[in-house]
Amino acid sequence: MHGGRTVAAVLLLVAALTGCGAGGRPAPDPPDVVRFASYDFPENQILVEVYAEAARRRGLPVSVQHGIGTREVVSPALQQGVVDVVIDYLGTALAFARPGFPRPPTEPERMHAVLTRTMGGRGVAVLAAAAAEDQNGFAVTREFAEAHGVTRLSELTPLAGELAFGGPPECPDRPFCLLGLEQRYGLRFGAVTSMPSRAATLEALLSGQIQVGMLETTDARLAVAPVVLLADDRGLQPRENVIPMVRAEVLDRWAEPLRSALEDTSARLTTADLVELNRAVELDGRTPAEAARAWWDRQ
Description:
Elements: H1 2-18, E1 34-39, H2 42-57, E2 62-69, H3 71-79, E3 85-89, H4 90-97, H5 108-120, E4 124-126, E5 136-141, H6 142-148, E6 164-167, H7 178-185, E7 191-194, H8 198-207, E8 212-216, E9 227-229, E10 242-247, H9 248-268, H10 271-282, H11 288-298
InterPro entries: ABC_Gly_betaine_transp_sub-bd (IPR007210)
Keywords: Signal
GO molecular function, one term: transmembrane transporter activity
């Protein structure tokens, strides 16, 4: 059933990206356009715009499709040639590509090497990683943390049965989200609520609808909202450096201009930059494209 839904989603994505020609048949893709695609959460949309803007500034023709879906949709779309460039996160991308890997490496260089070999066999090139990194974080309100004396995830274990957890719809099945919390920490929450966005997660935390919520560690709202991230004291989260992944055929076609655009972006991008980009969109109201252009103007 899961595989069938993924195939159906990719087919819908093909239709969305190409449109329909005469007789309801898919129209051909625009010639010689590098197609960037993002996942269905704001930070990834920002990152895609940052990397796409680098390609534009080198004179490459670019299209951007936002909010395609989860990794279960976007990764097959990249491998099947429906999209050309995806901006991903090292640890999660490796776990998704090699779910049964017996002893996954923990050092970024080795993680990158394994991911490069794995995706290379699927027609996808993994380019150099950025210093910028974003991991899954798990937040509680400051009031909750003080009342219960918790600063670490392991300290939630005796409380979890009475707590409600909120996170993205895919969280229960993800090894670095709810599934990992259960396996690594023994956290089994009394209720689990699917959240449509990170903003909704924060609102649910502040209103008391949930007591624990998943927010990325680079979420700019963490600096202004009365919430705290709990320490991952048992090391659930892997290294999550930002990485561009490109269809090998497309990289061969555009050669050095595309490679240098993407890798120059990675060489410049820091975690502090990522927080500031998120702030520009989440708090200052800019669009991802506006934030990306402003970031490049400052470089």
